[in-house]
Amino acid sequence: MFNLNKLLRENIKKLAPYSSARDEFSGDAKVFLDANENSLGSPLLKWYNRYPDPHQQQLKKAISSIKNVAEENIFLGNGSDECIDLLYRSFCNPGKDNVIICPPTYGMYEVSANINDVETRIAPLLDDFQLNLAHIESLVDADTKIIWLCSPNNPTGNSLNRDDLEMVLNNFNGIVAIDEAYINFAKQKSFLQELKDYSNLVVLQTFSKAWGLAGLRLGLAFASKEIIDILSRVKPPYNINQATQELALKALEEVGQVNDMIKEIVDMRDALAGVFEQMAIIEKVYPSDANFLLIKINEAKKVYDYLLTKGIVVRDRSRVLLCEDCLRITIGTEKENTELVDALISMKD
Ligand SMILES: *Cc1c(COP(=O)(O)O)cnc(C)c1O
Q1: Which is nearest to 291 in space by CA: 104, 150, 152, 171?
Q2: Residue 272 — very low, low, confident or very high, per pLDDT cuts 50/70/90?
Q3: Ligand 1 centroid distance, CA of 131 (Å)
Q4: What is the pairing mode between strands 144-150 and 119-122?
């Protein structure tokens, strides 16, 4: 049985969280002399002299209505990367506990584990980039706290089979973190509406990809109220700054515009995949549910260096397990995609 209290680190169980000035008084008042801010103002036009809402209530309310998830099930991080780190710091005892990752996948699960001195156990994806369930199962022991699953996966671009994800959710008594950074580009359904069925599920999403706000640093974790409360106690008090809270709130009014961009990116992705498939130097174009394409190409490193000489930067994944001779290419604007294709065509000589 899933027992959150048993998963939690002892020091976090006992943690008395920092109580900010804005926690101790959050009502309306005329004069705020409680937080050592600069009462004269700021060199900017806005009210940036004041600390932001540590609980991001307005922003969570807006996200709640768009995502159809209760506010108490939403946590906001300074990028998903902060959510990943907070899961380690809340659940994994350094030097003792372990987590499972399924490479090739997003690098931060392992980097963050290393920073937190947590062992990563590795169950590589199968040749079709799907989960190796038997291998995952064989790695789990009493100290396994988190299984990291990324769907659609970076850098392979495919979604993981839903049956496999459900199998892990139903059989693992630790945290199952499903990273849905690319879900807006996928045909697959999100696991967001499944939160009620799985008390061990954490869904990660981000404003960095489809929402076009990588510069603001805003990531989301969705989970049971109990898990969200833990992350909220462990986070730095003002982890989401005022400018990000304001701008994200504005962006959320433009869902229509974002959906148009998603559609345009997906159309360009599929068109570019078609063009790549016709090119002799490209050995394979992997199916993508994301805003990038993974391609297998002769002498990937040479192609990568050549593209650099043309001022085009792609991601060289050729030294990554199961991605030998692969490049990961983000879908650009129409013009950028054409430039890339033209460069590849003119490479022969
Ligand atoms: C880009 C990406 C993220 C986003 O991280 P942020 O810190 O929110 O920018 C998370 N997970 C995966 C798999 C990604 O590719």
Answers
A1: 152
A2: very high
A3: 20
A4: unpaired
Q: Whose CA is nearest to atom 3 of ligand 1?
A: 181
Listed residues 238, 254, 270: the one ending a domain? 254
Asked if the structure places residue 43 within a domain, the reply is: no
- Is residue 179 lining ligand 1, measured as CB closer than 6 Å? yes
Q: Return all residues near 308 (Cβ < 8 A) that are at least 6 apart.
A: none
Residue 271, token pair as written in the block: 């068109």
From the list 183, 137, 144, the residue with the least C-alpha distance to 160 is: 183
pLDDT at 252: 98
pLDDT (tens digit per residue) in 215-253: 999 999 999 999 999 999 999 999 999 999 999 999 999
Hunting for tokens 């990943």 — which residue is that?
84
Pocket flag, ligand 1, residue 188 (CB < 6 Å): no
Is 89 inside a domain boundary?
yes
Structural domain containing residue 133: 4-20+51-254
Domain-embedded: residue 29? no
Q: Return d(Cα 258, Cα 256) in angstroms, integer.
A: 5
Quote the mean pLDDT of the chain: 96
